[in-house]
Amino acid sequence: MSGRRPKVRRVGVVAKRSSREAVETAAELAEWLRRRGLEVFLDGPTLAALGRHEPAFSPAADYDLVVALGGDGTLLSVARALRPGIAILGVNLGNLGFLTEIGRAELYPALVQVLAGKYRTEARSLFDVERRGDSRGAEHFRVLNDAVITKSALSRIIELTMVVDGHLIARYRSDGVIISTPTGSTAYNLSAAGPILHPLLPVAVLTPICPHALSLRPIVVPGSSHIEVTLETQREEVYLTLDGQEGTELRYHETVAVTQSAAAVHLVKVSDRSFYDNLREKLRWGGLDRPEDGGGP
User: Fold this and answer.
1) What is the DSSP pairing of strand 158-164 with strand 167-174?
2) DSSP SS3 for 41
3) Which of 92, 193, 214, 271 sits a CA distance of 20 to 30 A from 103?
4) What is the DSSP string of the chain?
5) Count H helices, E strands: the chain?
6) Cβ proximity of 196 and 190 under 8 Å
7) Distance separating alpha carbons of residues 284 and 291, to the nearest angstrom
8) pLDDT (tens digit, 9 = 90+) per residue, 62-87?
């Protein structure tokens, strides 16, 4: 989506809870926005840290824009809970940040553009995740990065069965499996030797974690696929972790089902930096300094 956007009137601001810099930036940003006649809602923990008593940001409410101050983790926590269609501007106050659009120094120039309607949004796919079994009720989650099934540190190798659209893919022994969105391909999936995917591809990637059989490799499937992974191991501690931030125990013969969500996350884009620019910068691809003034071959 590009071109002039609807006027911004209501803004939610969410700061990383453990970062004093993020809290102070949120307070400063709220004042800057209010001076321009906008309604601003800070998240509850930030208000508490500032000692303020005013209406707080709620993921269930309607906003024209939400600003996430911190890093990818802060943006992930906002994106999972936010109402569909709300634009999110990610501001990186940390070191890496594949999801965040700008750094602290770019915050106010970027917002000037956004308030003038000079920005675009990029839709990122979400996955709906269900943990289900016979012995207890189902649990439902939503992820922007990944759903990970993994053993605990003291557990032995586990056995899993993977089925995609009713077709058996594999029965295998490993430390677990990562079911990743294209956005999440540069997270845990990348560390586990999975492929890097362009974030706008309509696919999912299934990456085994330290498989016992070396022939078992990551596989990319259509994003519309219905993916099921069933735990076949007894008496081991196994967990389902969502975006590295939520988790639940997975028991023997319970199944994790993953499907593409009807909702999407809309990330604000104000710069000309491409996904490939980010890869080159963040992963230091081709980062050798060139000799200056002809001082080398």
Assistant:
1) antiparallel
2) strand
3) 193
4) --SBPPPP-EEEEEE-TT-HHHHHHHHHHHHHHHTTT-EEEE-HHHHHHHT--SPPP-TTS--SEEEEEESHHHHHHHHHHSPTT-EEEEEE-SS--SS--EEGGGHHHHHHHHHTTB-EEEEEEEEEEEEE-SSS--EEEEESSEEEEEE-TT---EEEEEEETTEEEEEEEESEEEEE-SGGGGTHHHHTTPPP--TTSSEEEEEEES-SSTT---EEEETT--EEEEE---SS-EEEEETTTEEEEE-TT-EEEEEEEEEEEEEEE-S---HHHHHHHHTTTT-PPPPSTT---
5) 6, 17
6) yes
7) 17
8) 999 999 999 999 999 999 999 999 99
Place of tokens 């006649």: 37
What is the rounded CA–CA span in Å between residue 124 and residue 202? 10
Question: Which positions are catalytic?
Answer: 72
**214-227 pLDDT, tens digit each:** 899 999 999 999 99
Q: Are 68 and 14 in contact (CB under 8 A)?
A: yes
